[in-house]
Amino acid sequence: MLKRVETSELRLGMFIQKLEGSWFKHPFWKSKFLLEEQWMLDALLGSDVDGVIIDTERGLSNVPQREVATVGAPPPPQRGMPLVPPRPAANKFATARVATAREFGTARKLAERHSRLVSRVFIEARLGRGISARTVDPLIDDIYASVQRNLYAFNGLLRCREDSEETYRHALATSALMIALARQMNLSAAETREAGMAGLLLDIGANQETGGPPHPEDAWSGSTADPEIDVHCQHVLSGHALLKAAGDIPDAVLKVCMRHHERLDGCGYPNRLSGDEIDQLSRMAAICDTYDLLVAGKGHRPGLDPAEAIRHMGEHCEGLDPAIMVDFIEMVGIFPIGAFVELRSGRLAMVVDEDPTERALPTVLTFWSRPLGKKIKSEAIMLSQCYGADEIVGIAQLGGLNLPPLGALRQSLLNAYTRAAAD
C-alpha cells in the first residue's frame, strides 16, 4: 500500500517509493530505496523534500516521529547539508573492513554487467548512432551507490582485475574515481552526478584505430599546435562532437570531454588553456584520468604500482591542480588498494583495504618473505590496529622474485582476502 507522509515523519525501516519534487531537491539519485541507515534519514530530514511516498508492504508503516526518538540522538542536519556519511570512529573500523570485502562482491557484479553496457555505448557511438544521458543513468546510479556504501571497493576491485577490455575498464574506473573525488570535495548531488557521467564518457571519442585513450606521457609528448592533425587531440574533438549531438548531455560533461587533457601550465591540448580557463570538473578529470591510465599502463609503458603512480603524479605532473591533488590523495590513500608494499618485518604485502581514520595505515595481505626468500601463507594485517608490531617501509620492489604476472597476483590476492572475510 502506498502512503504519503511528511518528511519529518520518516523513520528507519521505511521503503521509499517516491520523493516529491525534482531530484535537485535531494541528494539521492534513486527514488525507490529502503531507508536503512541513519545518514540516509538525516540527509532526507535536512533536504528540501516536503513529502515522501512510502510502500507499507515493503517497509515499516508511518508512525509519529516522537515514537522513534532516542535519548541522546543528534539533532537533524541543517537544510543543504551535503550527503556524506560520517567517517567511522577508529574502534568501528573492523566493521568497515568487513563491509569493504563484502562490497567487492557487489562491485564485481556491477563491473561485469556495466562493462557490457559501456561497450555497447562506445560501439554505437563509433558507428555514428546517437547516445543519450538516459542510457548511462542506471550505470551512474549503481556506481554512485557502491561508492556511498564503501568509498574504496569499486575502484579497488577494478585495479585488481585483468579480465576487462581496456577502454571500458578505464571508463568505469574513471567514473568511480570522479564520483569518489566529488564526494571527498563535498560537491552537490547534481555536480557529483555530472562528475560520474563525465568520467564515464570523457574518452568516448577514442577509437580502436588509436588503441583507446592515450597514455598520459605519450599524449603530452605527442601533442602539436595543430589539433586537426594530432591524433590525441582528435579523440577529444570527436568525443565532444558525439556527446554534443546527443542533445541531453549536460554542458559540464561536454566541457570535461573537451578539456580533460588541458593543463594549468598551458601545456595541454586541444586549446592550450591555462589557469582559471579550466573549470573545476575538468581539473578533477585530468587527475582521475591520468591516475588510472598510469596504473593500467599502455603499449610499451607498463602500469605503475598505485602508490608509485601517486608519487609520480606529485613529482612529474606540474599541470595538475595541486589543491585537488590533495583531495585525491586523501580519497585514494597514500597506499591505494592494489599497491604492493614492503613491511619492516621483511614481508611483502598488497594493500586490500583502507582505514578512513588512519590513511597511512591500511590493511595489507602478506604473500612473500624476503628473509626466507619464498612465498608465505597470506596474513591480513590491520596496520592501524597492530600497535607498531609491523609497518610499511616503502613500495615493494618485486623484480627478480618468482611471482606470477602482477595483474594475476593482484586478482588472486584480492580474491583470497574476499573469501577469507566471508568465512
Give a short summary of the structure:
This protein is α+β, with helices and mostly antiparallel strands and 423 residues long.
Walkthrough of the structure:
This protein has 423 residues and is an alpha+beta fold. The protein has 3 domains: 2-67; 93-332, Hypothetical protein af1432 (Orthogonal Bundle); 340-422. 44% of the residues lie in helices and 10% in strands. The protein has helices spanning 38-45, 93-126, 133-149, 153-159, 166-184, 189-201, 216-222, 231-246, 251-259, 280-296, 306-316, 322-332, 406-422; strands at 2-6, 15-19, 33-34, 51-55, 340-343, 347-353, 363-369, 374-375, 380-382, 392-395. Strands 5, 6, 7, 8, 9 and 10 form a 6-stranded antiparallel β-sheet that branches. A 4-stranded antiparallel β-sheet has the order 1-4-2-3, with no helix packed on it. The chain is globular and about 65 Å long.
Number of domains: 3
The SSE order reads EEEHEHHHHHHHHHHHEEEEEEH
Which structural class matches the secondary elements?
alpha+beta
Our Rg estimate from Cα atoms comes to 22 Å
Q: Which CATH architecture of the largest domain would you pick?
A: Orthogonal Bundle
Global geometry: globular
The CATH homology group name of the largest domain = Hypothetical protein af1432
Number of helices: 13
Average pLDDT figure = 80
The CATH topology of the largest domain is given as: Hypothetical protein af1432
* CATH C-level class of the largest domain: Mainly Alpha
